[in-house]
Specification:
Strand order of the largest sheet: 3-4-5-6-7
Order of helices and strands: HEHHEHEHEEHHEE
Structural class: alpha/beta
Mean pLDDT: 87
CATH topology of the largest domain: Rossmann fold
Shape: globular
Largest sheet: 5 strands, mixed
CATH class of the largest domain: Alpha Beta
Radius of gyration: 17 Å
Strand content: 15-25%
Number of domains: 2
Number of helices: 7
Length: 218
Amino acid sequence: MAALLLSGMNYNVKLIDGDTIESSNSERQPLSGTNYCGKPKVKALEDVFGILGRSGDNVFVNTYLDSFNINDLLGDVDFIMDATDSFRSRELINEYAVKSGKPWIYSSSHGSQGEIKLIIPDKTSCLNCLTGGRKLVPMACHSDSVDPEIPSLISLYTSRFITDYLERNIWDEDLYLISALSRDVSKIMVKKDTHCRVCGFRDFKLLESHSITGRQLY
């Protein structure tokens, strides 16, 4: 959803996903109907983009991001948007973003709550500053535990965070907590950790690992 909104604002997007559509996806992801069950998610999105006249220079890649292909897949992008349900993938993206100097945003959903944090290398705290390497929920959630409206709600917020940064240079170090149940938006400042393994000591062990695959939830 966020990618569709951004493409409508004349941003070129590259969508990377090796997953296939399941029947349970239809209630949380309105862009993919049940007629696409069993087919690649990027195929459904490519069709939707085409119907809406948004194909343009957008790229649709049917594969999982991992420690082997991350540079090939993300080396030519200016900004990385995370919409995975894999904590390991987020850790890998964080290392790559810090090492390459690419800004990125992580978004996560669990139950009726979502989380968003913008990460700008050398300016803000990174994901590892926040977690200290611990696996947190909802950062490491499974999509089956997500209320149907949450992914679309978080997509709206995420697209705005991205355009605020790219077009208006508006950013902060806060972790945003968005609740559909209470309709509240709260935030927690996450300060840069000078002893952070990733952005402090620049230890990129996951990038150098041969065991990080896109199917790992944890």
